[in-house]
Amino acid sequence: MSTPKIRVDTPERAGLDPEELHHLAREVRALTTGARPWTAGAVVVAGRGPVVAVEEAAGWAVRYASYDPEAGRGVELPPADRVPMTVTTPFDLASLTKLFTSVAAVQQIERGTLGIDARVGAYLPEFRAAATHGVTVRQLLTHTSGLRPELPLYDCPDGPARLALLRAEAPTGEPGTFRYSDLNMLLLQAVLERITGRPLDVLVHEGITRPLGMTATRFGPCPDAAATEDQRRPWAKADRGMLRGVVHDENAWALGGVAGHAGLFSTGRDLAVFCRALLAGGAYGPARILGPDFTELLLTAPGLGFVVDQPYFMGELSGHGAAGHTGFTGTSLVLDPATDTFLVLLANVVHPRRRPGDSGPRARAATRIARAVRDV
């Protein structure tokens, strides 16, 4: 049976308070203004049920030519050379990529080709450290493997050296204790590619984005994307200059742009479709990417790939089962099964240079959505 596809309509038709959504749009626009804005540009897409009630862009997809470390600020392009943000601008999703890797994994769990409590060593015996320590698929999906946050793969001279580093990496934390790590998704990528015989980008395209009609979602390069960072040492881990359309994450870049933890590009509208499919139990239009029980498994605390009820970026949407994630470049999404609402906030906060994270604007945007919900 087909489920409704998203459509743009009024807040009232979505069962949302128009005044709260007016404030949301105004506050997102304000994030891009001033001499030192929170972000160069942003796109916000939010709604309830199949209705998109807010879809707005603000600021610049490309504002700066470079970063001046002596002045401590970006070197702005002439106005004629800047690129305005639009609602169709693709963004480097950064760690939102983990959500797609996780869905791909749960698809294999649903098909019976992957055991959620199976040991990684059963699929990848050559990853001796993980095999010796009994790391499981569930631990990878819940960030409880004990693996450290990352490895300097970007400093390895070639692919074999990077793979050798991953194979030799043993947990350094207590297994079963939450410790967020990009390595979990890199190992999960290796497991998925081993059991299916297909690369991750193909799995994501064939299993998620193509059936959902997410035509703007793909691994890079993505030339029209919002710019990210003037990536130079010492503030970055590599010297790559101003980045646009190529993955920002240094390890994903070192791995060729396709990685379990980073590398996807997408738009606000495409991510709204992704949210809607999950809120509808894994279905969208005539397509189904997961069964309802496995969608619930993905989103229920502690979450598989998704994080659940985290007020630091979910604001007042958290507390009754909201799920979502953030990305280092400035991306985030939240979906709330209890109210059937979703919020996608995409920003290029690392343009022209990374800085300490501030998720306050994300939390305030989510709170606007929570307060906008009307009983209908």
Overview of the structural elements:
The chain has 376 residues and is of the alpha+beta class. The chain folds into 2 domains: 7-100 and 208-372, DD-peptidase/beta-lactamase superfamily (Beta-lactamase, 3-Layer(aba) Sandwich), CATH 3.40.710; 114-200, Methane Monooxygenase Hydroxylase, Chain G, domain 1 (Up-down Bundle). Helices cover 34% and strands 18% of the residues. It contains 14 helices and 17 strands. The strands form 5 sheets. Strands 1, 2, 3, 6, 14, 15, 16 and 17 form an 8-stranded mixed beta sheet that branches. Strands 7-11-8 form a 3-stranded antiparallel beta sheet. The chain has a two-stranded antiparallel ribbon with strand order 4-5. It is globular. The two termini are 24 Å apart. The model has no long low-confidence stretch (mean pLDDT 97).
Provide tags for this entry:
8-stranded mixed β-sheet, 18% strand, globular, alpha+beta, Methane Monooxygenase Hydroxylase, Chain G, domain 1, 376 residues, 2 domains, 3-stranded antiparallel β-sheet, 14 helices, Beta-lactamase
Radius of gyration: 20 Å
Class of secondary structure makeup: alpha+beta
Q: Quote the average pLDDT.
A: 97
Terminal CA distance reads: 24 Å
In DSSP terms (H or I, runs of 4 or more residues), the helix count works out at 14
**What is the CATH domain class of the largest domain?**
Alpha Beta
Looking at CATH, the homologous superfamily of the largest domain is DD-peptidase/beta-lactamase superfamily
- Can you name the CATH architecture of the largest domain? 3-Layer(aba) Sandwich
**Relative helix content:** 25-40%
Number of domains: 2
- The CATH topology label of the largest domain is Beta-lactamase
Total E-strand runs: 17
The description of the largest β-sheet is: 8 strands, mixed
In terms of per-residue confidence, which ranges show pLDDT below 50 for 5 or more consecutive residues?
none
- Gross morphology is globular
β-sheet strand percentage: 15-25%
